[in-house]
Amino acid sequence: MPEPTPFHAAVTGLGLVTPAGVGVEASxxxxxxxxxxxxxxxxxxxxxxxxxxxxxxFDADALLGRRTAWRLDRYVHLALVAAxxxxxxxxxxxxxxxxxxxxxxxxxxxxxxxxxxxxxxTLLADGAGKVSSLxxxxxxxxxxxxYLAIDCGALGPNLVTxxxxxxxxxxxxxxxxxxxxxxxxxxxxxxAEAGLSRPILAGxxxxxxxxxxxxxxxAASRPFERDRDGFVAAEGAGVLVxxxxxxxxxxxxxxxxxxxxxxxxADAHHATAPDPSGAGVEAAIRSALADAxxxxxxxxxxxxxxxxxLPGDAVEARVLGRVFADRPAVTSVKGVTGHSLGAxxxxxxxxxxxxxxxxxxxxxxNLDSPDPSLDIxxxxxxxxxxxVVAATSNSFGFGGQNAVLVLTAA
Length: 410
Known about the structure:
Layout: E1 9-18, E2 21-22, H1 24-33, E3 39-40, E4 51-52, H2 60-64, H3 66-69, H4 74-90, E5 102-107, H5 113-126, H6 135-139, H7 143-152, E6 158-161, H8 167-181, E7 186-193, H9 198-207, E8 236-243, H10 245-250, E9 257-266, H11 279-292, E10 301-303, H12 310-323, E11 329-331, H13 334-337, H14 344-358, E12 360-361, E13 384-385, E14 390-397, E15 401-408
Parallel strand pairs: 5-6, 5-7, 10-11, 10-14
Antiparallel strand pairs: 1-2, 1-8, 1-9, 3-4, 7-8, 9-15, 12-13, 14-15
C-alpha cells in the first residue's frame, strides 16, 4: 500500500493569553526572555501550595464587554480573547466568510471548574434557590468551542477534545484532519484552561504533582533541572487559525508555518504515571514524523512537554535521546508559563511557530543545574539562534494520552 501524501495545514493566525502576557507579542517577549511568572496566589492563601501562574492584568469586562463576560466562565474568557486575536492576525472577517466551511476544535481538561466551585459554595451557604441558572452552560467542557462559534459565526464541525494535558495538541491534530478531509476550509484550533481553584490545587498537591517551593515560587517550575520537584499550575489559552493551503493561497494570506504531521498514542500503563519505557511517547513522535514524511534527522527543534516532574521529564528526555541522534535544540516554555493543562499544547504550538518564524528558540527558565542523567540539548540561560525548518511540539497527559505535532517552515 503506498504511503499517504503528507498534508500541510497552513497556520495563518495566532492568538495567546498566557501568564507571560495578554497577546502574542507580550507572551513571546516574556517567554523569549525566560522570565518565570509563578507567584503567590491570594485565592490559595492557607493552602499547602499557594502559588500559581495567572494571566496578569486580564480584565474580561474591558476586553469582551460586560454583557458578554458575565455569563461565561473564565476559561471561555481567555479563549475568546485569544481567538479574536488569531482571527484578526489571519486577516479573516467573520462577517464575510462562509461560516459553514469554518470549524472550531478546542482542547480543555477541566471545564468551568471556577464557576462550579463558586456555585457549590453558594449552594451550601444559601440553598439551591440561589444557584445561578447559568451554572450548567458556564461549567460545560464543550462550551468553549460553542461560544467561539457563537462569537464568530463558525457553522462547521464544533468539537472539544479532552485528553488531559494533551488536549490542545489533540485539538490541533484533529483540526488538521478536518482540513485534510475537505470538511472545512478554516478551523480555529487550540485550547483554554482556568482551573486554579482550591479543590483542584488541593487534589494536585495530594497527588504529589505540584512543586512545593513555597519560599521561592518564581524558581519552582524548572523543567529538566536536577532538583525539580513538580509542576506549577497555570491558566491560559492559545488559538491557531488553520486553513487548507489552497484556501490560504486563494485569499493571499500570510502563512506563518505549516502543521505537517500529527501522531497520537496511549501508554495503556497507569492513570497518572508515565510508562517508564517511554514506548507510547516514542510511538507518538515517530507517528507524527511519518505523517509529515520526515526523518528524525530533519528536526531542528523540540518544544518539549517538560512539566518539571521527576518521572515525566526523565521519560521524555530518554525518548528524545533515542529518537533524535542529532540532538536538536530542546526547550520547555513551562519554566516561564507554568503548566496550563488542557491549554498547554496550543500555547507551545504557537511558540513553536514563532521559533520557526524568528529563528530563536527560547530558554528553559530556572535550568541552573541540568539533570546529568538526561542526555539532551536543552536551551538555557538565553534564547538560542536556530534556523528552524522542522520542529515537534510534544504533549503528554494523565491516562497515558500522548499527542505530538510536526510544524514546518512555510
